[in-house]
Amino acid sequence: MSTRKFQKASIAELVQWYAEGSIAYEQALEAADSRSANRAQNKITGAYRELRIRGETSQLLPLLQSENETVRTNVAVHALEFAPEFGEPVLLWIAARPGWNRTPAYYALKAWREGTLKFP
To answer: How many CB atoms within 10 Å of residue 14?
Structure first.
């Protein structure tokens, strides 16, 4: 997706694209499809950047209740930048569970606590 498309999108579209990108990312990883995973990650990153530019990152917080654990993980990691009181507990819970999201949650928390976590 182009930067221009993100700029023209509504807040609701950006949040929807973020969630869709997270689900597509999970599916691409399960299929070992790195190209699709990269495209999905670009969609997530583009939506997040545009929400940050507009000062609307908090619009992602309802996605912390998503049924999809990858959506929750991505939002929780990004929430460490603007609402750590919401992101940290979700990441702690995910890091303590079995599953493939466990490792990214653990390392995001570790980097955040060390002050080395970088946001797109």
So the answer is: 21
* Range list of β-strands (E), 1-120: none
Instruction: Give the per-residue pLDDT at 2.
Output: 81
Domains of the chain in start order, with CATH, are 3-114 (1.25.40.70)
- pLDDT tens digit sequence for 8-63: 999 999 999 999 999 999 999 999 999 999 999 999 999 999 999 999 999 999 99
Share of the chain above pLDDT 70, in %: 100
> CA 65: distance to chain centroid?
13
Rounded CA-CA distance 55/37 in Å is 27
Nearest to 41 by CA among 21, 27, 12, 58: 21
Q: Is 12 exposed, middle or buried (0-12, 13-18, 19+ CB in 10 A)?
A: exposed
Whole-prediction pTM value? 0.93
Measured N-to-C along each axis, helices 34-53 and 11-30 cross at an angle, to the nearest 10 degrees, of: 160
Q: Quick check: 51 and 60 in contact, CB under 8 A?
A: yes
